[in-house]
What we know:
Blueprint: E1 2-5, H1 7-14, E2 26-33, E3 39-43, E4 46-50, E5 54-61, E6 63-69, E7 72-78, E8 96-98, E9 105-113, H2 122-131, E10 134-140, E11 143-149, E12 151-154, E13 158-160, E14 177-178, E15 184-192, H3 193-200, H4 206-209, E16 210-211, H5 238-254, H6 259-269, H7 272-289, H8 293-307, E17 313-316
Parallel strand pairs: 2-8
Antiparallel strand pairs: 1-9, 1-14, 2-5, 3-4, 3-6, 6-7, 7-17, 8-13, 9-12, 9-15, 10-11, 10-16
Helix pairs in contact: 5-6, 5-8, 7-8
Amino acid sequence: MMKRIKFLLIILSSMLTLTACSKPDSTEHWIDNPTAKEIKLKIDDKELTIPAKSGINYKIEYGKHTLSYNNDSVNFFVKPLFSKSLKNIVQPKITGFINPTQSNYIFYKIVYIDDSSSVATDKFIEDIQRNTEYKTQVIFDGELQEVEVPFTVTNELFIERDKYPWEFFLGEKVPDIVEQDKVATVKGKIFREDEFYEYMKDDVDFENHISLPSNPKKFNQLSKIVIPAIDLDNINCPEGRADVEKKIATWNHVLTLTGSEFAKEYDDMTSMNNRVATSEISNKCYQDYQNESYTTQVEKITDIYNQNHNLNFFITD
């Protein structure tokens, strides 16, 4: 039996199923509103009301959409989470959520220790603590400081579970004890900001001494996913050039699709078979022309696939 340890007190006091046989056309995501008042937003032409300090589950078709909120708008894509090459992996129930107000959320690492084990020495616990720490900016008595703590803060528009791998979702109670076969285990919890302050109130005086900086952006300032400039003329391998041209055309075509068509074509575009074919062309081009002109250009495209492989959303023009 393992007990929870709150390392934050120590630190601050000292200072998602997709299968190959079917292609769903949509997925459900949580839209959260941690503010004290209800908000209204639009996804495409659908107006949604999100209650205060709560949220709604909303079914969104795969493909391109427009989110409008507070006189601002942004284009984004919803994509399948896993490739068919990973068909045996079960998609998490909660795979990412939308944060239209760009409010702060805290991802906190909770350590559980079996303190009856002889392995659980002070040094062992210190090592576990060190491995849970982030360098996080906090405002301490009015001064911005960077401290090493077991939490990080995000106000991203789309908050992804792959990046913040929580076991305990918003509003979900953190258990004091978990059943595990290990001496130590680390669990993740995603908090709304006021929920986090409430959770820590017996240990750290956030209200009077510590706060978290808030830096929301205009939607047009958010990072977008686009294929960067490709120098086709620099690819002196004809087969390689043809492949890059095909990949650009496929990317542009896929982004026009919706629903199950988008899911299938995106899956094919980013599949393991496609990666193997790219590797084979790269090897052939190098052998025939003794340079990596094809590899240098094609990696600009494949890097986009890799960066977004386990994400549910990406922003575009």
